[in-house]
Amino acid sequence: MDALMAEKLAIRETVENWVLWRDAGDWERFKTVWHPEGWMNATWFQGPAEKFIEVSREGFNKGVNILHFYGGFSVDIAGERAIAQTKMTISQRATVEGVLVDVLCTGRMYDFIEKYQGRWVIRRRQPIYEKDRMDPVDPSATLKLDAELLASFPEGYRHLAYLQSKIGFPVRKGLPGLKGASVEKIYGEGKAWLAGSAKPGDPVWE
User: Fold this and answer.
1) β-sheet bridge partners, residue 116
2) Cβ pair 68, 19 in contact under 8 A
3) DSSP assignment, residue 153?
4) In 63-123, which residue ranges form alpha helices assigned H by DSSP?
5) What order of strands is seen across the sheet that includes strand 34-41?
6) Were both Cys, which of 114, 147, 176, 205 would link to 183 (CB 3.0–4.6 Å)?
7) Can you give the pLDDT at residue 156?
8) Are 123 and 194 in contact (CB under 8 A)?
């Protein structure tokens, strides 16, 4: 195995450990995939990784059901920095409008990666939301959504945002999807990160 392939595999392991340890509630090991200045963005959260771990633990203990699944992976490496993209789904189960539903959102994890103390860790994570759907867990159930509320959210995570807003999460709009200014902003920040920018872009969304 050549050195480049070894680095790619090490980054892939970090990315996979994120999803396995987070979804399993293995919080001590989950901490190890993050840079000390790590930052997490999601529909319902943006802030330091340390805070994300805390609120994720609280939600896990209260029964919040959010799971992830990974697919294809690509990474660009420049010295001790990398940009990794991983196909993924986000699955969340909750009761909406009196009906137990599953939402499945398909997209990519866009990760700003850095080698820190000899290990590849995540400096900033930004999901890209491409499309989603909502289905009753019981296929015989009848589900009626508020069409105006649903349409107020971006297409890529419309149903996920609907569910999360209904159960009390503060969902942000304008997050990156398959196309548009928001995702182009992320791509530009990724290129700058590989070229040596002082920080991994501006992670704060209005």
Assistant:
1) 119
2) yes
3) S
4) none
5) 46-48, 34-41, 119-136, 99-116, 81-96, 65-78
6) 176
7) 97
8) no
| CB 40 within 8 Å of CB 33 | no
Which band of pLDDT confidence, cut at 50, 70 and 90, is reported for residue 205?
confident
In this prediction, residue 1 has a pLDDT band, given cuts at 50, 70 and 90, of: low
d(CA 44, CA 42) in angstroms, rounded, equals 5
Q: What DSSP character marks residue 167?
A: T
Report residue 127 as tokens: 């999901």
The phi-psi region of residue 135 (left if phi > 0; otherwise alpha if psi is between -120 and 50; otherwise beta) is beta
Share of the chain above pLDDT 90, in %: 97
Tokens of 24: 């399993």
Per the CB < 8 A criterion, the answer to whether 150 and 165 are in contact is no
Q: Which domains does the chain have, with CATH numbers?
A: 3-190 (3.10.450.50)
